[in-house]
Amino acid sequence: MHCPFCGADDTRVIDSRLGDDGSSVRRRRSCQACGERFNTFERAELSLPWVIKNNGGREPFDEGKLRRGMQRALEKRPIDTEALEEAIVRILRKCAYGGDREISSKQLGEWIMLELREIDHVAYVRFASVYRRFEDVDAFSAEVDRLRSGQPTDTGTQLSFLEAEARRRKQ
Hints:
Layout: E1 11-18, E2 24-31, E3 37-43, E4 50-52, E5 58-60, H1 63-73, H2 81-97, E6 102-104, H3 105-119, H4 121-131, H5 137-149, H6 159-170
Parallel strand pairs: 4-6
Antiparallel strand pairs: 1-2, 2-3, 4-5
Helix pairs in contact: 1-4, 2-3, 3-4, 4-5
């Protein structure tokens, strides 16, 4: 590791410990040339898939975009930021460990809705109304009715299986 102060390449690790969230390692280093001390953080680099958009275009997975979308749905809701971070980590794991090089934006949206449904029903309905492009009050009302009755959402994917599995794990 090069020293950020003098550029020397001879630095040594003085102390190592887990970062705040446990997903990184914080290392305290000392430069042998100038004596300055600095911190570095080591984090696992996940190979995330490309996202195939509805129009057929492809773009790299953007964790910031995922976070902003979920934060917008959760805006002004009494939700602990820890719950949001855990949901994001679960989605990232599904993306990284799924083994696919590409994932459809539809599948990603379904995973987001599944997580939001578990965190906060209002946030779920907010996200679903934009994501599914509800065109009238009846579509919105039908989604709220499904939510109240505990029915799986009508996604056309294996989401109902995933929801059932999530419910089973909670019991």
